[in-house]
Amino acid sequence: MKNLIRYVGQLAATFNPPQAESKLQRYTLRSFHSFRTRIAQTFSEVSIILKTMRVSIPKEIKMGERRVAAIPDSVNRMVKKGIEVSVESGAGEGALFTDSDYAAAGARIESSVPTLFGGADVVLKVQIPVLNTTVGRHEIDMMREGSALVALLCPLMYHDLVRQLTSRKITAFSMDVIPRVAAAQGMDVLSSMSTVSGYKAVLTAANALPKFFPMFMTAAGTIAPARVLVLGAGVAGLQACATAKRLGAVVEAFDQRPVVKEQVESLGVRFVGVPTEEAAETAGGYARELSGDYRRRQAELIHKHIMKSDVVITTALIPGRRAPVLITEQMVKDMKPGSVIVDLAADFGGNCELTEPGKEVIRYGVLISGLVNVPSYMPVHASQMYSQNLEKFLFHVYDGKGLKIDMEDEITKGTLITHQGKIVHKMTLDAMAAAGGG
Ligand SMILES: NC(=O)c1ccc[n+]([C@@H]2O[C@H](COP(=O)([O-])OP(=O)(O)OC[C@H]3O[C@@H](n4cnc5c(N)ncnc54)[C@H](O)[C@@H]3O)[C@@H](O)[C@H]2O)c1
What we know:
By secondary structure, the protein is an alpha/beta fold. The protein has helices at about 1-15, 25-50, 70-80, 100-105, 115-120, 140, 160-165, 190-210, 235-245, 260-265, 290-305, 330-335, 380-395, 410-415, 425-435; strands at about 55, 85-90, 110, 120-125, 130, 135-140, 150, 170-175, 215-220, 220-225, 225-230, 250-255, 270, 310-315, 340-345, 360-365, 365-370, 415-420, 420-425. The chain has two domains: about 50-175 and about 380-435, Rossmann fold, CATH 3.40.50.720; about 190-370, Rossmann fold. Helix 3 packs parallel to helix 13 (about 380-395), helix 8 (about 190-210) packs parallel to helix 9 (about 235-245) and helix 8 (about 190-210) runs antiparallel to helix 13 (about 380-395). It is globular. The structure holds nicotinamide-adenine-dinucleotide (NAD).
């Protein structure tokens, strides 16, 4: 019964009649439209009474963002689980999904942004919520108190946003702090997005480099392969290594965590590292900040390798901190003219002293790309991967009626930032206390 009611409501909301040509047809269509709206509203109200969980997917409005939080395939699987899904008209445009694709997947297409946000039990987003200048309201303020938000919120950095979510009593989950445990592997958006970035960084570099990547032996002579240095061999770095190898370059990779040596070498890439007795990584497998002495020896090693490289891809990050500076101005000066640096850490300040986030600049004859939000440059597959991760997460916390908040569950505990007007995430609380906020 519940499914039938939802189905009729969705059908009424999404059915598109043919164009009217005569006066009578126009009159009939107008009547049909108002009837359709009434039916859709009625069925939406009935679904509230029946306590169907309502999920909304808005169009991303942050400048340059082309991804969408859920693609039609995921929407269809949500609908099949009894979830009522509304999608803002045009939400999938940037990633080449049309309203009709969503309607065919069972979503209701909504053109009123306040209705979309206000009618949701759960809002699924990619970017942090921002002010919607078209409707003149902040996305958080359009949400109902007690409703939930799932997005990339960067809570370790955006403390004001966390406070805003708390004061609106939003149950906020941040996908960028999902624990790196086997059970959460299918929900790991950081790995998905890093895969896209690592691949795209190499193509960006290959496109800008005034040389070939592979070695060629031609009648016009032998062309030496490009030399690529990857700094930071996490998920993005390993993907960059693999892509540069596929294009035929000679690749080296550097990381402060010695454990990555084996992973790098399994790709046929040479590992360069500075031996150290210090613990280079946290229990969670992330890099930790090392001593001044280590950093000096690291700088010397990078300087030596950078001078021989045609391309440097940098990916080094320390969670919750500004990205470490690994390439100084002097190192850039000593690179060969025409070389390329793609700084994937630009979103967090950059690994190169001369990176200008969001810009491509030439300094001392070296092109430095500070592209930000790189996954958005491949919106189709980036959205597909993000959507799959989000869908798995949603189904993990969905109990058939609504979201279950089980703080004993490692995944919930790791991602839940604010709930019932409180900050409940330890890492976020620690980061806020360290920043002097709290
Ligand atoms: N589900 C899982 O189990 C799972 C999935 C993905 C990643 N991981 C692990 O999570 C960890 C983090 O991976 P990530 O890709 O998110 O990393 P990241 O994006 O946080 O950092 C990128 C790389 O930069 C390196 N780095 C940081 N500071 C550096 C410095 N000063 N000099 C040199 N290198 C520096 C880090 O060691 C890391 O390898 C890794 O241990 C990875 O294997 C686990």
